[in-house]
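If you are new to this repository, start here. Below is one unmodified record pulled from the training split, so you can see the exact layout before writing a loader.
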Amino acid sequence: MENLVLIAYYVSLAVSVIWRIAQLTAVGLGVWALIDTFTHDASHFIAADKRTKGFWLGVNAAGVAVVLLMGATSMLGLLGVVANAVYLADVRPALQYYSPVRVRSSIRFPNGRGGYQGGRGPRDWTPGR
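And here is the target side for that same chain:
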């Protein structure tokens, strides 16, 4: 009988640790969505045919607040997690399409000896250079 009590104790301890990890993950998800909303330009939301930046800031902030106050296991907390997950799964990929493209600032040109000269090369592309 003692073994069953020990097993029940350790199982309940493991379940409580898993719930804590789920709570922290829900808060982390919401904070990630909120920070990502701040980083995008407001015009990208309109171009992606999504709601406005202010709307998504409000939804993500409310989702984080509800999860922090009520927990992710409550009904409202679950709605907060779902709202943040919708932003990350649907809106964020659409916004990334309109992100600026990073381009190399210098081009490497052959210097004729089999190597490359660093920095910017000449502007004309005539053969034999």
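Two things worth knowing about this chain: Residues 2-39 form the longest helix (38 residues). The mean pLDDT is 85.
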